[in-house]
Amino acid sequence: LLSDQSLGDPQNINKIDYKNLFKQANSLERNGLFDEAQIIYLNILSTDPINRAAFNKIKNILRNKEDFDLLKDVGQKYQKKQPKNLMAKIDLMEIYIWANDKQWVNIKEEIISNNLSNDFIIRVLLNKMSYSNLYDSMKEIISSKRKEKNKESYFSLEMGNYYISNLQYEEAIYEFLIFLDKNPDQYNKISNK
Q1: Model pLDDT for residues 20-68, shown as the tens digit of each residue
Q2: FRET label pair with 43: which of 89, 143, 162, 172, CA 20 to 30 Å apart?
Q3: Which residues are CB-neighbours of 153 under 8 A, at least 6 positions away?
Q4: Among 6, 128, 25, 5, which Cα is nearest to 70's?
């Protein structure tokens, strides 16, 4: 777990301008000093544990360093401080995916079971899963959403793009035809594929 030791010596940054800290950390990152930037972002999170900008920055640094233990710890603390924030829960799921930790499945199931009718959240969830090439896991969610909404074209454009990028032309054509059936005015979007 994160402790004051893992954060270095946290500064009292309550009254310090975050903008200047972010400028400093960004400058450190540009110069390849990721460990030093990491300390700044962790210090910001120790003072403001739901600072999304600092969380996103530390998430990227730790992912690139493949420090998944610390990343999971940071993500857990970030999500625990805002238990009703579904975006924080989706971020934690994404971290578990990156860390190859099967706990991501439990978070996914919880989000789906409590939010299947929330189109925005389900789309964000599906997009995060697609970035990690979890299309087989996505198919069940998409199928449920298509049935729930009685809308066969739900996420069909995205699935068509996935299939075409993986040279699965029959599946891509099927999804694109579904999309075009409900969105004929977007023919140009598909014809360029």
Answers
A1: 899 999 999 999 999 999 999 999 999 999 999 999 999 999 999 999 9
A2: 89
A3: 178, 179, 181, 182, 183
A4: 6
The pTM of the whole model exceeds 0.90: no
Give the Cα-Cα-Cα angle 148, 87, 72 (nearest 5 degrees).
120
CB 128 within 8 A of CB 94: yes
Specify the residue for token string 């995205």. 158
First to last CA, the chain: 47
Task: Please give the sequence-ordered ranges of beta strands (E in DSSP) within 28-85, or none if there are none.
Answer: none
What is d(CA 169, CA 183) in angstroms, rounded to the nearest whole number? 20
Task: Report the alpha-carbon distance of residue 174 to residue 171 in Å, rounded.
Answer: 5
Nearest to 135 by CA among 111, 155, 114: 155
